[in-house]
Amino acid sequence: MAGEKQLTFDARGHQLTNINVWTADSQWLAYDVRPKGSEFSGATIERINIVTGEVETLYQATQGAHVGVVTVSADAAPRYVFIHGPENPDDGWKYDFHHRRGVILDPKASATPVTLDAFDITEPYTAGALRGGSHVHVFSPDGSRVSFTYNDHVMHEYDVAQDLRNVGVALADSPVLSAKKHPREYDGSHFCLLVSQTTATPRAGSDEINRAYEEGWIGQQGYLKADGERQRWALAFIGDTLSENGEKLPEVFVVDLPDDVQDYQQAGAFPLQGTATRLPAPPAKVRQRRITFTGDRDFPGLVSQPRHWLRASPDGSTIAFLMKDDHGIVQVWGVSPTGGEPWQISRAPSAIQSAFNWHPDGKRLALLCDNSVMLLTVANGDMQRLTERTDVPPSGDAVVVSPDGAWVAYMREISGFNQLFVTAVHP
User: Fold this and answer.
1) First CA to last CA across the chain, in angstroms?
2) Rounded distance, CA 313 to CA 360, Å?
3) Distance in angstroms (rounded) separating the CA atoms of residues 282 and 204
4) Confidence of residue 58 (pLDDT cuts 50, 70, 90)
5) Which of 400, 361, 392, 394 is nearest to 378 (CA)?
6) pLDDT band at residue 426, thresholds of 50, 70 and 90?
7) Pairing of strands 132-139, 44-49
8) What is the pLDDT of residues 355-404, one digit of tens each?
9) pTM for the full model?
């Protein structure tokens, strides 16, 4: 058993995001300083060296803004993307799901981050700009795109029931200018758009969804389709359908994305930028597909607890997710992005307790089970315990393997504060 190493000790929060928290050299962990729980009140983005313990402040928010949920690009000289709340917040405009933006910090270029998503809430709306708040930004493996989840200010003001969570994509090297008719509007460095399709009133028993969330890029280079051709760009996400009985039924969905960046600017049946009474819509060549159909199981649907994000294997062949087995125990399952029956990966006697991530070898997953950090071997379901079992488990929010596969990072609550830990991975 590897044991564990505590990295942080100061009496404040230390929060890892659920993926891409390591720099490419596997030496640094990026984190924010939110207190434990949902309060979004951190003012700095930091990183810590796992060998020396050196801490660097990457960014300090000003003007009353708050920042958090940082992830890192795979570049040798890393870029950092994170949520930035509004500056000078007041009762009329403060941090909320629909009042936040993504920013990218490139330390080699500037100490000041650039805003990712342009913001335009006055008609006529601007294609490539958003009208609300983006969240949990994750670089694609090659760094050319960023995925995010989204809530819409315009729809929130029009009818809060129409402000549906969706999944979006930001394209680099395509800056967007906002008309800036409202004092809160701003420009963005990326062309941003929604790629999921939701409706406030999904039909029971259909593939329609009223929420798209917890997405993940599929594969380092996409995935192979049934005909042997490669789908280069795709995201997996959880979509909330309604069962035949009208109950919420979370299922796995995949959205296939075009190769040509110009295709992202071609509207489908509805405007990319939305209207005063309609959410922004996906481009014409984006295809959303339902992958799992679990309504007939004794314990149907993906679980909401522990909260987890869909994670695809490096080769793109397997999308991993959490669902209860026939005994009601939460296990890891897999499904192909091309569809078909899901298969059970873990067969633990006790429930999986956390979000999870693939080891870069594509053969194992890091997660929490039985109050320990574990490595799950996908081929046979074997569990390797990396840390001693403790009375209180580590935090289930994030269990993330380093790019070189040698470490797993996670958090433990100690005296009311999340502290950062790592444990070594042995072959």
Assistant:
1) 12
2) 8
3) 23
4) very high
5) 361
6) confident
7) unpaired
8) 999 999 999 999 999 999 999 999 999 999 999 999 999 999 999 999 99
9) 0.97
Structure tokens at 291: 């992958």
As a whole number of angstroms, the distance between CA 154 and CA 145 comes to: 25
Q: What is the side-by-side order of every strand in the sheet holding 191-194? A: 132-139, 145-152, 166-171, 191-194
Taking CA atoms, 205 is separated from 196, 241, 249, 294, 338, in Å, by 19, 8, 9, 11, 21
Distances in Å between the Cα of 171 and the Cα atoms of 39, 262, 270, 286, 340 are: 30, 10, 20, 14, 31
Q: How far apart are CA 179 and CA 119, in angstroms?
A: 9
Residue 99's alpha-carbon distances to 60, 206, 351, in angstroms, are: 19, 32, 36
39-43, 202-206, 288-292, range with the lowest pLDDT: 39-43
Secondary element (H or E) of residue 157:
helix 153-158
CB 216 within 8 A of CB 235: yes
Distance CA 315, CA 127 (A): 33
CB burial class (10 A; 0-12, 13-18, 19+) of residue 317?
middle
Instruction: Extract the tokens encoding 139.
Output: 């670089």
Dist. CA 290–CA 255, nearest whole Å: 9
Between strands 248-257 and 233-242, the pairing is: antiparallel
CB 110 within 8 A of CB 101: no
Domains of the chain: 1-12+291-427 (2.120.10.30)
- Using one digit for the tens of pLDDT, what is the confidence trace for 288-319? 999 999 999 999 999 999 999 999 999 999 99
**SS3 per residue for 168-184:** EEEECCCCECCCCCCCC
| Structure-token match 């050319």, residue found | 144
Cβ(351)–Cβ(369) below 8 Å? yes
DSSP structure string for 245-273: TS-EEEEEEEEEE-SSGGGGGSB-SS-TT
For residues 70 and 32, the answer to whether their CB atoms sit within 8 Å is: yes
| The two structure tokens encoding residue 403 | 């790019």
Q: How far apart are CA 188 and CA 177, in angstroms?
A: 7
Residue type, 19: I
| CA angle at 103 for the pair 100 and 109, rounded to the nearest 5° | 160
pLDDT for position 36: 79
Q: What are phi and psi of 275, to 5 degrees?
A: -130, 180
Label residue 190 exposed, middle or buried (CB < 10 Å: 0-12, 13-18, 19+).
buried
